[in-house]
Amino acid sequence: MDNSKLIVALDVDTFEEARGLIETLGETVGTYKVGSQLFTACGPAVIRHLNANGKKVFLDLKWHDIPNTVANAVSAAVGLGAEVHSPVDENKTKKDVERGIFMCTIHTLGGQEMMERAAAAARERADSLG
Description:
4 strands
């Protein structure tokens, strides 16, 4: 089954609600959108939960600020892919999982410099994490 074209928005208030949706949808969905509502409530834990379950993450926080601030935020978001622990399957075998975020949003109204700095910060952080 090709689940790569469907992105489901986790526009819920709690980690428990998000986890329930992820479990219910199972392999049908490969990518989830985490917006400001859920990210503010749960922080990076929801990203790491999705990663541990082999899901891609679209982090939809719509950054718009001075170039340095947006670049630092994007770098931090890419850094969510840093390994905190090694997920294992039921047999205690390390499993390969998605790491960090698949994509994120920034507002183009922040201007060319902001967008260029955000892209550069994402590349640099991703390169440093391998």
